User: Fold these one by one.
Assistant:
Number 1:
Amino acid sequence: MRKLNVDIYRSTVSELSPCPGNPVAARHRDALWVTCSVARMIQDWGTYADDFMDEYDVGVLDGVLGPEWEAIGQALRGLLNGKILVDAGTADACIVRIFQNEGLEP
């Protein structure tokens, strides 16, 4: 069964906590992701594919928009080379997991 990309995003964000169960660390982690535009774009990009599946009952890659959606994901990976507020490796892992969830091997 296909996972929701938003769940993949959330589980990846939870990996950023240096002290699981520590509410201060959790607030810090959440603040970093909420204020980072790249992180929001990753979440929205994944959610777009979820919404596409809900609306059309096929994966985003099965439609004419598939190459554009894939290009956005690759561009997001490129943005990780800039100055961002999160661990770029973890953010990249999130993008890769969403690609894999949609049937791509980036």
Note: The mean pLDDT is 80.
Number 2:
Amino acid sequence: MSYLSQALSAQALSPKNATSGSMSRVFRCALEEINREYLPGTIDYVKTTDPELWERILSAEDKLTEAWLSGAAEEFHRVLDEWENLHRQAIEVYRKHGNGNHLLSLT
């Protein structure tokens, strides 16, 4: 189970349900935004071609989970922005250099 999955399932158990619930909504909106841009194969491509970026994504995910589980809303929002930006970077790397570059001619 990923850290984010753990955070989603743990939110109902959190003593700070209101904060956790609002963080859940914000996270889901961010995830929907990333999903709109996501190109299948991005993660696998970045894992193998840009391990530094992949490690930064994993580190942001860990920090995001810690902030979520501790109820640190300001930190959560800050790290969520970082997490989103890193995923956008990964998508852009794949779009420019990976197998996703053929999709540019279709848009």
Note: Residues 8 and 24 are 7 Å apart (CA to CA).
Number 3:
Amino acid sequence: MLQPMNRPPEPLAPLTPVEERPRLSGIADAIARLDAAAKAATPPGHYEHAILVDSATEICRVARDGGLQVEQMLIAVKDAWRATPGRVSRRSGAAEDGLDQLITLCIREYYTPRGD
């Protein structure tokens, strides 16, 4: 929002230090289980749709329980994905990466109305 020239700008809200952000080990745990399933799949690195859906459901539950907005959840998913050791590399010729599929499913799941 533009400020009139005769007033000083309002101060910005301070950023939350990284160490004070909620710890979302549940997201990393869901991604670790997804990776374990992909390593055991034939061919290795294939992310089964049902397992992706289960992972998205778990990730959204953790995010909601932690009070995260969808954008915060998606950043946490991407951070956990990239930080996972031993990541199964993408199969050549794969139309869509597992992370892309997971992000799409998380967005759908996050915005699915709940009866609870």
Note: Residues 16-22 have pLDDT under 50 and may be disordered.
